[in-house]
Every structure is written in structure tokens, then in C-alpha cells.
Amino acid sequence: MTLLQATGLVKQYGHVRALNGADFDVDAGEVVALIGDNGAGKSTLVRMLSGSEVPDGGEIRLNGERVRLDTPATARGLGIETVFQDLALAPHLDPVQNMYLGREIMHPGLLGRLGFMDNHAMREGSKAAFAKLGATVRNLSGAVGSMSGGQKQGVAVARAAAWVSKVIFLDEPTAALGVVQTRNVLDLIRRVADEGIGVVFISHSMPHVMEVADRVQVMRQGRMVATYRAKDTNMEQLVAAMTGAFSREEAK
């Protein structure tokens, strides 16, 4: 079943057309890798599908129903989570506060009505999310801004995986990670998909794409130019599609 589908998306920035009738789709329980050279339109497409920006044209459907993703909060409310390359973390807050930012758990009863948060519940929830990912986030009280790139990445990925219910976009999720954490993220991608979530994996790492994806969609010059089953393609074919040195008949 097609979970999230975009058709004919257009986005113009001044004289630059970043998306030129771009199509996209991901099924429930599927990992789709989104690849393309720098400037192909990948990040713009993700911004449209995550509510960060509104396309100038085209349509987006979730579970077959047309939706308007006009803010990230709207997308999150529909079950769409995103980990951008800049991670979108609050550097002055600790990992627990980042995990529950905008989703704070209040104390039951009078204390909750007075505005007191259940810090113990949020701390335990954060521990469980980080353990599931295998993230090496040991200090739950320190500011995220003082952490290493790999730890920040772990917080951002764990947060998205904990809250997603429909589709998760992961934009270069292994870029700042070591070997062990990279393996944990790739394993998590498959586990999340196995729970019926649509996973969109944006990466420049062809080995990671070939390992984890069910399908690979290739963008070039603001459009989707090819779609392959990962098991039926190879890195040479993907690079040819990214650069335009391929036959469209091969990519059907």
C-alpha cells in the first residue's frame, strides 16, 4: 500500500527551479533510498514532505488522502518525522529535554495541571529510546551543544524513531557516526520498517543504500529520473542514473 505519495511537485526560488515536477512514493514497511548528486533536489523534496516548506505546485497524499503539509507540526501530527542534516536540536537543552521538546509528559493530577512535568517518566523513556538505537548517550543531564557529533546524531535519530507512526525521513543519518553507531542506525532502519513504518533514507553512501534499501529512487535536476529495486541494481547503474548516463528503459 502506498503510504506517502508526491506527484508533480514544483518549487521555485527566484530564478532557480529546485523541483521541476518531482514525483515520490514510499510504501508502509518499506525502505526507500533517495539519492542524487548535490543540487539534484533531494533536500528540497524532503523539506516539502516534512512540512518545512510548501511546494508551489503538485500534490501530496498520505494514505491516499490529499494533505497540505504547511508546517513541521502538521507533518508530525500526521505521523511524519524527519532527521535533517543539521539535526534540529536545541543545543542548550539536555538529551531528555530534546527528546520530549513539544511533547512533554506532565505529572498526573493537580501537579500536572499546575504545570509540573514528570521528569522521571521522560528520563526513563529517553533511556529506552537511546538503548534501542544503541546510541552512546551516557550523560542525560549535559547540554546537547557540548556533545560530540555522533552523540548529537544519536539523539536526533532516536527522537524521530521514538515518535514516528507513518513515515520517517533520515537525511544522511550515518554521516557523523563511527562504525558501531553506523551499524546500529542501519539495523534500526530495518527494525522501524518491520513495524510498518515507511522509511526514507537519504544518503551519499552507495554501500549503505545497497545494504538497507528495498527500492532506490534517483533524483536529477529537480525530478525523479529512475526507480530501481535494490536487489536488481548495482552501484554503477545508480551512478549512471545520477549523472544522466543511462537509458530510461533500464530504470522502469
Describe the model:
It is a single chain. The protein is of the alpha/beta class. The protein has a domain at 2-89 and 164-251: 3-Layer(aba) Sandwich (Rossmann fold), CATH 3.40.50.300. Helix content is 34%, strand content 26%. The protein contains nine helices and ten strands. A six-stranded mixed beta sheet has the order 6-7-8-3-9-10, sandwiched between helices. Strands 2-1-4-5 form a four-stranded antiparallel beta sheet, covered by helices on one side. Helix 5 (119-133) crosses helix 6 (149-163) and helix 6 (149-163) packs parallel to helix 7. The model has no long low-confidence stretch (mean pLDDT 89).
CATH superfamily of the domain at 2-89 and 164-251: P-loop containing nucleotide triphosphate hydrolases
User: Regions with pLDDT < 50 over 5+ consecutive residues?
Assistant: none
Query: What is the CA–CA distance across the termini?
Result: 19 Å
- The strands making up the biggest β-sheet line up spatially as 6-7-8-3-9-10
The chain-level structural class is alpha/beta
Number of strands: 10
**Level-2 CATH architecture of the domain at 2-89 and 164-251:** 3-Layer(aba) Sandwich
Radius of gyration using CA atoms only: 19 Å
Tell me roughly what share of residues is in helical segments. 25-40%
Question: How would you characterize the largest beta sheet?
Answer: 6 strands, mixed
| Arithmetic mean pLDDT | 89
Order of helices and strands: EEEHEEHEHHHHEHEHEEH
Shape: globular
